[in-house]
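Pilot study result, target chain (101 residues):
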Amino acid sequence: MDDMEEVPLKKRTTFLGVMAFLLGILCIVMIFMKPVAFFIVTVSNWFIAIFVVAVITFIISLLGIANERERNFFPIIGFIISMAYIVFWIIFFLLILIGVM
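Predicted structure:
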């Protein structure tokens, strides 16, 4: 019993991965949904709320990807969704600045 082999880590989906995936889906739903008023989110700051959800999804996805015991499927999907939305707004504002739109 001198040679104790290390037990491999069992990868599983954790709350962090599921949360990243669900927030990514929420971000997509909010994009295509008519702006409505929730709690402190009004119609005028609807796009800011979507951007905040995308940034939170980005952070949670990175935490889920960095977690060793996490299956990376759900956090990667959440990461892709959040990055797509953030990159869209960066391109949109760059096009406005150079006068294309």
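One observation from the pilot: The mean pLDDT is 81. A full batch analysis is planned for the follow-on phase.
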